[in-house]
Amino acid sequence: MKRVLIVKVTSLGDIVEALPVVADVQRAFPGVKVDWASDESFADIVRWNAGVDRVLCAPLRRFKKARRWSDFKAIWASISELRAERYDAIVDIHGVYKSAIIAFLARGRRRFGYLAQDLGERGAAFAYNGRFGPRPKCDAWLGMRISTGEALGYKVDTPPDFQMRIPRDGTALPAPDAPTALIFHATSKEEKKWPVEHWGELCHALIARGLRIELPWGSDAEHATAREIAALVPGATVLPRLTVSQVAQRIEDSALVVGTDTGFVHLGHALLKPTVMIFVATDAEHLGVRAPNRSISVGDGHHVPPVAVALDAVDRVYPARDGGGAAKGPLATAA
Predict the structure, then answer these.
(1) DSSP SS3 for 321
(2) From which residue to which does any coiled coil extend (predicted)?
(3) What pLDDT is attached to residue 332?
């Protein structure tokens, strides 16, 4: 096995959680080169993985929205780049039309994808001449690792290794001068939001634990919500609008990440930060983050989790500190 192509096109959180596939493949086949095909919007996330050789990307999302000629030309040019290498295996762990088309256009002997019942779009099946087994009964993230192992003939038996290296290019905000909690209140859908009043109560409790509060945002509506939360929490900081790289840098500089089911919270988990993910309308068992004493997901996807549940999760991943900044309590030794 000399070169493998992984196809996972979107979105931020899904791509972050799929990155351990690279370390798995390279552990099974020392010296193998791994390329990755993604949407242009998320190419930097893949580039932060130290094990990826080439990142192949095109403005698929942007073209779908605007249908501009310049984006079409960029997509056409990306096909030539995609076909510049010949792959021993092409593994589509996305399973929709756009990922299947990429897998079909790539040059390779074997193209692996999901069984029809596990595809996001059943018509994507045209692209594959090899199939994974039935979707395993586990979370989506381990499932992608297991499926890739089935395709290439190895077992997954190690914790996920994200191999994340965030560039420090001089654009980062000044490092915080006290332990800081990043609060990711924004979500892609209205029904996934946690109430502003809950965020206010949670932030007050975090301040009482010695943490500063910072509120990132990415749109005018998110900025307005951040200001609403800050109005309830004296001393909370609404950050300026940041690039994805700057958010990643801020996560690295933080002490704790708390947020809803959104990509940046997955990034906090991948960067090995104490992380709490709050689920309101999606499935924590299938889509959440978890790592002993470091990452916890709360909520059943049907009810709004109370503040007390989120605070209990915080205490598990970020135990109370004594006066000297050291952790104390039953989890301190385990962490």
Answers:
(1) strand
(2) none
(3) 37
